[in-house]
Amino acid sequence: MNSYERFAEVYDELMTDIPYVEYVEWIQSHAPAQNYKNLLDIGCGTGTLALLLHQSGYNVSGIDLSEEMLSIASARMDVNGITIPLYAMSMDELDGFSDLDVAIIPIDSINYLKEEHQVIETLKRIFQSLRTGGQLFFDVHSIYKMDDTFLDGPFTYDDGDISYVWHTEHGEYPHSVYHQMTFFLQTESGLYERFDEEHFQRTFSYEQYVIWLKEIGFSHVEVSADWTNDEPTEESERIFIRAVK
């Protein structure tokens, strides 16, 4: 069993602080399901948000680079008695979708792209996949979070079943970080099994994302921060961007 498969196992536990319902409400407030039916979840992970969106009335499809994540997402749909098309695909190679009403890249998934051209290509392919009037919703880590908050580590977590020590260090690009995580997962015997993960993330200023979106052809772009309708400040940590084709 490879390490990323183990990470997929613990992913949901690590994301319990994400207010997924608020994410759904953000999308619904601008693109209600009765008028924006077909939705693509890009970087859908283990399917938590995709399930909520399906239950809110959207026709949801999902893509993710990790087959392990998609396997868990598929099992989640099976348990809930629903079927959602899921595809193993990199977001910067998005292909096969057209006339989408909504596309989302949730929970800083786009920050896992290492190169600037990959980000631009992702946004271009989404633009091409949306119908006129279709909308893109995504969020990114702010520069402040990448350059300051993440480097206040190490961070630790322990709930009895899962423990981790999370170290961070600057990446080789501006506003990038390497996350080095050591997990201890309790087994049925009561002993703990260790596995290690390293992840890379990179962000850009929200102004730069807006420039790219407008250059690609999006007609309207809105920016807010930290699960509010407020504009970003110097110490905002999560930036939310909505773009209309």
UniProtKB/TrEMBL annotation:
Q: Which ranges carry the Methyltransferase domain?
A: 40-134
Gene Ontology biological process terms from the UniProt entry:
methylation
Q: Which InterPro entries match?
A: Methyltransf_25, SAM-dependent_MTases_sf
Keyword check for Ribosomal protein = no
Q: Which Gene3D superfamilies match?
A: S-adenosyl-L-methionine-dependent methyltransferases (2.20.25.110), Vaccinia Virus protein VP39 (3.40.50.150)
Tell me which UniProt keywords the record has, alphabetically. Methyltransferase, Transferase
GO MF, one term, reads:
methyltransferase activity
Q: Does the keyword Methyltransferase apply?
A: yes
Please name one Pfam family that this protein belongs to. Answer: Methyltransf_25
Q: What is this protein called?
A: Methyltransferase domain-containing protein
